[in-house]
Amino acid sequence: MRNKITFFGAICLGLALLGCGNTESRPLSIRFSADSTAIVISDIGETGLFRLKTNLEKDTAYQQLVSVLQTPAEDDSTGMETDWPGKLRMQGDSLWFVPANPFVKGKNYLVETMLNTQFASGGDIVRAKVGHTVKPQQQILVR
Q1: SS3 143
Q2: Contact 122, 18 (CB under 8 A)
Q3: Continuous segment of H or E residues that includes residue 30
Q4: How far apart are CA 116 and CA 23, in angstroms?
């Protein structure tokens, strides 16, 4: 009887930990807009989406949530990453990065954001693979 109770408790704990892994942990969709004049970030978790919608226009710190860097080509050993300035704005449930200067055709752009990030998923907690830092989500886009 005691083994059944222990087994049942372990199953309940495992389900509870797996239940903690919510939609906030799914990867973002980071892509160019249809006309390649902006970067569109979608599939943002509910909490982050609410905070963006209520604070993006009020708090300038939210403009730092997304960084875009123009990266050199693989065969360019002399090039350096350069910050690509722009503004963030909400359009529906997507966050749009509109650059100050147009994206250059044929160049690579590294997009980094802290949206939808977490220290560990429920499965990572069970396997004791909890990190010490939050890793940004990254995507390389080619114009």
Answers
A1: coil
A2: yes
A3: strand 29-32
A4: 9
> Sheet holding 39-42: strands in order across?
29-32, 39-42, 94-99, 86-91
- Do 121 and 93 touch, CB atoms closer than 8 A? no
Total residues found in the chain within this entry:
143
Specify whether the CB–CB gap between 120 and 130 falls below 8 A: yes
Mean pLDDT of each 10-residue bin along the chain, 143 residues long: 49 40 65 95 91 90 91 74 93 94 92 79 66 78 89
Spell out the SS3 assignment of 79-139.
Answer: CCCEECCEEEEEECCEEEEEECCCCCCCCEEEEEECCCCCCCCHHHHHCCCCCCCCCCEEE
| Predicted structure pTM score | 0.71
pLDDT score recorded for residue 3: 54
**What number does CATH give the domain 23-142?**
2.60.40.1220
